[in-house]
Amino acid sequence: MAAIRSKGSVIEMQVRRALHGAGFRYRLHRRDLPGRPDITLPKYRLAVFVDGCFWHGHECIQGHKPKSNTAYWGPKIARNMERDRVNRMALAAAGWQIFAIRECTVERGCSELLALLSELRKVGPKGVR
């Protein structure tokens, strides 16, 4: 597990390139926010989490349940999911919008993210009418 990257993963880099290419500027891994979101767009008060399907318990082909050492992995992934839920509730309570991008959706393209961001662009930054 020491080789698993928490920052700068291939999936995260794809999302960052898509955001930058669409003209959005962002901050990375803000320590002052609960859960340390992978990407934040402070202007829109948007926190983006780029989640690996396996590590965050997504029900897709990549989020498969391991067949070996299930006594360890089952509770480990359950703790990850609970931690995600608690951190995202804290962010929402602080007035942030949360957007979670799963590894499997990035591999199909970032169209979901870009659609959301085009909607945000129409609405405009938080607090500006």
Write up this protein.
The chain is α+β, with helices and mostly antiparallel strands. It has a single domain (10-122), classed as Endonuclease, Chain A, CATH 3.40.960.10. Helices cover 42% and strands 13% of the residues. It contains four helices and four strands; from the N terminus they run H-E-E-E-H-E-H-H. A four-stranded mixed sheet has the order 1-2-3-4, sandwiched between helices. Helix 2 links the parallel strand 3 (46-51) and strand 4. The protein is globular, with a radius of gyration of 15 Å.
Q: How many angstroms separate the termini?
A: 46 Å
Number of structural units classed as domains: 1
Largest sheet, in brief, is:
4 strands, mixed
Rg of Cα set: 15 Å
Net shape: globular
Helix content class? 40-55%
Total helical segments: 4
Tally of strands = 4
Largest sheet, order of strands side by side?
1-2-3-4
For CATH, the homologous superfamily is named as VSR Endonuclease
Question: What number is the mean pLDDT?
Answer: 84
What are the segments in which pLDDT stays under 50 over at least 5 consecutive residues?
none
Assign the structural class, choosing from mainly alpha, mainly beta, alpha/beta, alpha+beta, or little secondary structure.
alpha+beta
CATH topology: Endonuclease, Chain A
Elements, N to C (H/E): HEEEHEHH
Considering the chains and any ligands shown, give keywords for the structure.
alpha+beta, 129 residues, four-stranded mixed sheet, 13% strand
